[in-house]
Each structure stands twice: as structure tokens, then as C-alpha cells.
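User: quick one, fold this
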Amino acid sequence: MSRRPFILADRAGGRGPPVIRRPQRAHCDREVAVSRFMLTAVPFTGHVAPLCAVAAALVARGHEVRFYSGSAFRGRIEETGSTFVPWNAAPDFDENDLASSFPRLVGKKGVGQLLINVVDVFIRTAPAQVSDLMAEWERVPWDAIVGDEVSVGAVFFAERTGCPRGTFAVLPLNMVGPGGPPSGLGIAPGRNALTKARDAALRAAVPLLSRPLRAPLAAARAAVGLPPSPRTFDQVVFSPRLVVASGSPLLDYARDDRPASVHFVGAVQQLPTRPPSLPDWWGELDDRTVVHVTQGTQNIDPEDLIRPALEALGKSDVLVVVATGMPGRDVLPFAVPSNARVAGFLPYAELLPRVDVVVTNGGWGGVLAALSHGIPLVIAGGDLDKPEVAARVAWAGAGVNLRTGTPSAAAVGRAVGRIREDPTFRDAAARVGADLRGRGGAPRAAELFETLPAE
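Assistant:
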């Protein structure tokens, strides 16, 4: 039996944003009644893919799921059994060409890129996201909304309507707590009086560090009819009710100050729905030491990491398998050594069981996938959340942090050599992998999100 949807009603006197009246539920003798979910993800592959796995798990459990994201992901979303809802009023941007939609990003990297990403891509698109969501809601309401941690439009929608909201953290958990430093700085929590004092000072500085976000957040709230709020960006985006986080406490510095609303569910990956297409050279992976090199799907200039990795490993006794990060881009703009093979995308379910070391720019989803297979990593994390990912993996002992997004060939070579020679890296990766695999993944996430409409 389906739950009856919420009823949208005006505030008394017709003033202010609409609110929700929850109807009385009919009796249901099923353990979990059918619910209507809206999932939202900013249209980046690393955000959409794990939420697609959650969507598929919810559908498999009998729920009705709609999924709001960019048109490039329509096919992937519909394969989960979800109904695709496109960014319409919101700018339907191309993740591989962000500057076309957000020109302030031209030439930006590092902190400058991060701030503009947050302001232009996440915050300033939020009013248009709310417009899209309200239009779909007025067509057919839903019982709960789940967004990734940068879907600001989902936050504003839930605040306007009172719809139950959960957060699915597709990135390293960037939640300021009462202990440790703010996430995102690539700094491990302090263990002595001096470093703990440093952490406290950094936490106190969060309002100041987030000052450039205040005016854009206030403007976006006003644009959708919400009152001013003193909350910082990280306080806005995480649901106080339920945060389901990809990853493991072993990749969260084993912090003990996370609220009870946070649940880690390991690596959340969408399983392929059809047999993958494998390149002609796939059989060459047999009985070889394989090093996989990837720069993910953003900041994919191959000069940053792929070229130095190939220079470092071109004369070694390994087979180097490179993913360029763009479908169809199976060649590089420079000559590659004879022991290298190149493809745009590669099926990780088939590739990773054959890989010995991963050299990566630190995309969270790829890192979790590698660690789930017990593979140690060399991470060149230069932008956005990548330095934080690199720091967490190094803290867990499962890889080497190169501390730059543009390493030298010599640095890459030394790091790969360390991992191949020192078994403690593989041992640590195996420990993290076992924990990731034991946390339930997408089915556990779906089970947790089922509690949202029930309260």
C-alpha cells in the first residue's frame, strides 16, 4: 500500500512560503510501505554515480524514486528504475566544460577554484533548482528528499516545504565537529596539546573562512522567499536529521565526535546493468603487475598527472593502464611508452581485481573503489576535495600523499616504488577495504533513508 503524499497548503493569510500538512497514514502490514523519494545530485559523475546506486537500491526495495540532475545522466539514472527529472530552470552544465556555464572558473585552480565552484555552481544555481523542484512537486509530491551535500536547492526546497530531508555525503565528510580541525584542509586531528589548540583555532576561524559565502547564501535564500540565517555553508547542507556518508571511520581519522545522525556505509557503487565493452588489449593484463593511472573526470589536463606518471613508469616492469576521464578519448596528446594502454573510461568492476597500485588525483569515488579491493594508492591531490582525500588515505596508511596535483615524474616513481616494496601499505589498504565492504553499501543507505518518511 502506498503512503498518501503530503498536502501542500498556504500559510495562514496566504503569506510566506507553503508548508506541508502530513495526512493520517493508512494501516499497512508491510515492514516497509512504499514511499516516494526525490533524489538530487549536482551533475558531476562523482556525485551522480553513488546516488544512482542508492536509487537502484530504493527501487529494488519497492519505492518510487525520482532523480533530479543534469541531462547528461538521463540514461544512467533511468537504468536504475528511477524517473529522471532534468535541470531545466537550473543551468544544465557540462562537467568537462564548466567554464562555458561558469566563466569565472576560467584559469582557476586551488582555493580560487574551490570558492568559485561553491558560489557559482552550488549556491547561485540553488534558486533555479528550487524552481525545478517546486514544479515537479506540484505535479506529484513525494515523501522525502535526499540530496548530495552540495545540492543547496534541495536544502532550500525542504526548508520551504517542511519535506523530510536526508543528506548523502558523496565526498569526504566535510562536517565541522567539536573536535579536530575543519575538514577540507588536509590536516589530521591533533594528538597533543599544541596541535589540539591549532584545531580549536581553526574551528573558531570557520565563520571567517566562510565569509565569502555569506552574501551569496543570503541572496539565494532571499530569492526563494526564505528568511536570513546565520548558518555557515557546512551547517546548511548537512541534514540535522540523517547523514548517510560514503566511506569509513578509518578514512575519517577515526573521529569520535560525529553526531549520532551520521552513518558510514562504505563504498557505494552502481553495478553495471550490461556486460562491459573491453578494449582489445584487455588480455595483456593477465599475469602482469598493473598500475592504473587516472585523473578522474575534472581537471583532466593529462599534463598534470598522466604525463609524469608515464614518464616515471615507462621503462619499468609494469603495465600502465590509463583512463583519460572522458568517453571516447582513447588517445593522449603526446606519445606514450610501449608498456602503457589508454582508454577514456574503464569498467572498474573488471579492472580493479587486476590492479596492484592506483595513481590518482584523489577522486573520492575512485579512491573508495580501489580501497574496497585492497589496492594501495599514490595520490596527487591538488584541487577541491582532493588534498583532503590524499591526507585521509595517508593517515590510514593505505597510500602515499604527493601533496601536489602536478607532481614530478621522479616523485611519482619514488611513491610507486615505496608501495611496491613496503607491504604495510597493502596491509593497511586491506584493512580499510574490509571495513568498507562490511558497511552495507547502497542497500544499507536505502534502509537508512527509509526512516525519513516514517517519522
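User: anything notable?
Assistant: The CA atoms of residues 315 and 329 lie 24 Å apart.
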